[in-house]
From TrEMBL:
Species name: Cryobacterium zongtaii
Region entry Disordered, spans: 1-23
Source species, domain of life: Bacteria
UniProt keyword terms in alphabetical order: Membrane, Transmembrane, Transmembrane helix
Biased composition (Polar residues): 1-12
Membrane-spanning intervals of the chain: 53-72, 92-110, 131-155, 167-185, 192-214, 247-267
Lineage start: Bacteria, Bacillati, Actinomycetota, Actinomycetes, Micrococcales
Protein name: ABC transporter permease
Amino acid sequence: MSTYRSTHQAVGSDTDRSPSGLATGIRPAVGGIPFLRLCAVELRKQLDTRAGLWLLVAIALVNTGFIALTFFTADAASLTWTSLAESASLGQLLLLPLIGVMAATSEWSARTALSTFTLEPRRTRVNLAKLVSAGSLGLIVMVVTLLVSAALNLAGILWQGADGSWALNWGLVGGTALALVLLVWQGVAFGLAFLSTPVAIVAYLGLPTLWTVLTLTIESLRGPAEWLDVNTTLSVLMTGAMTADDWPRLAVSLVVWLGVPLAFGLWRTARREP
């Protein structure tokens, strides 16, 4: 009995002296995960998965192919930094938003939502980190594309006697970069709305395309399409020739094709069991 009492007193005294406060049953206050750290983790998730890595490889190959095609087929007078950068935009505009889709659906398809939302219970905060990291990845790809285009522009000057103008069309480059970020966010929004990678990809690629086809075939839809067809409004943005009338049209189309699925996705993921 004396041995039990001495052991009990020793344990009790050690527990009472513990700074964590376990003896009183009160857990210490734990600070939230910094938002920038969340963004870094989400960015790493987009690059660590096999699907994300191979999709980036595919984007790099497609961009390289388009730039090389322009480099070897365009005449010397039209070979400039802007023309080379513009030629690579199609591949990344088409494929990079799919990384946004997978960034949103990976928590549910890979069944990591339980661990993620246990470490950070504020799900909307996690989803906002996905938006920031996916948009940052789009900008990184855009910068790499500009650097590769600059290297080939220099090669054109040295080897082909090309015009090689270094005067970038900043309206075109800025519009393309903004369109890329918006499309990546649209991919994240569709991923959050459907929470299934194949369904979200089909919806992201199919629904806006179907609407565009309908507006081309049904004359009565052509007027509303100027405000509701995101493909049309983003095409104007990528030309770098936006006017005062074009910005409201872009905003309305983004509310429909980005704002609505994103709001539904944030609401759905906040209430779904992991």
